[in-house]
Design goal:
GO terms for molecular function: phosphoglycolate phosphatase activity. InterPro entries: HAD-like_hydrolase_sf, HAD-like_sf, HAD-SF_hydro_IA, HAD_2, HAD_sf, PGP-like_dom2. Keywords: Hydrolase. One of its GO terms (biological process) is DNA repair. By secondary structure, this protein is an alpha/beta fold. It has 2 domains: about 5-15 and about 90-205, HAD superfamily/HAD-like (Rossmann fold); about 15-85. It is built from 10 helices and 6 strands, in the order βαααααβαβααβαββα. It has helices at about 15-30, 40-45, 50-55, 65-85, 90-100, 115-125, 135-140, 140-150, 165-175, 200-205, and strands at about 5, 105-110, 130-135, 160, 180, 195. It has a 6-stranded parallel β-sheet with strand order 3-2-1-4-5-6. The N and C termini lie close together (about 10 Å).
Length: about 200
């Protein structure tokens, strides 16, 4: 193995409390919906593509308005996360520091453009990662973005660390091993490896 590609939400941090408040503020301000988003709601939705999340939350609105509203939610969450870093999972920086001594580190997430940059800035962890991609950058879903990272950075033997079935399926499409972050938001039936905190990666690799 020469490299590790990480998911963000449910793998590196849990932003759901902060994002839920930001999204709820947008909904109450810009719609007539009596809808309050909570962290549990977002944990069930994060990992999907944004248009799919929008179609769930704003099902009564036309597609164009769904996309406008989800984009507004994302804008507000960026502001909120830059003002207050979401909780990082235990010993994350220490783990990344040790992993970086032997492996190249990357991020691929199913998020909007700018979200990974917000994570890297507000967490102060930008120096540990060599590159990143998301659908907001490329228009492509996770499997294609994993493949693009592999090709662009000439990775020979990467693994992917994520927390949802969608992450697992993307790695199977991309043809690389999957490390299941069991402390995250989802369930995966048969991962290649399982970790219970970021530091467990040091025991695997």
């Amino acid at each position: 193995m020469d490299s590790i590609i990480f998911d963000v939400d449910g793998t590196l941090w849990d932003s759901t409390e902060i994002c839920a408040k930001a999204w709820t503020d947008v909904i109450h301000r810009e719609t007539s919906l009596s809808l309050t988003i909570n962290a549990s709601t977002l944990k069930g939705l994060f990992g999907r593509l944004l248009p799919d999340i929008a179609s769930v939350l704003f099902a009564d609105y036309p597609k164009e308005e769904q996309l406008r509203l989800i984009n507004r939610c994302c804008q507000e969450e960026h502001k909120a996360l830059l003002a207050q870093c979401a909780p990082l999972y235990p010993d994350l920086e220490k783990t990344l520091q040790q992993l970086k001594e032997n492996y190249r580190l990357f991020i691929v997430s199913n998020c909007q453009a700018g979200y990974i940059e917000v994570f890297l800035e507000t967490s102060g962890l930008g120096s540990y990662f060599e590159g990143h991609l998301c659908p907001g950058d490329t228009g492509n879903a996770k499997a294609d973005n994993i493949c693009k990272i592999i090709q662009e950075y000439h990775l020979k033997s990467p693994v992917y660390v994520g927390d949802t079935l969608g992450d697992f399926n993307a790695t199977k499409t991309a043809g690389i091993p999957f490390v299941f972050a069991s402390y995250g938001f989802g369930q995966v039936p048969s991962p290649d490896y399982t970790i219970h905190c970021p530091g467990d990666l040091l025991n695997i690799f």
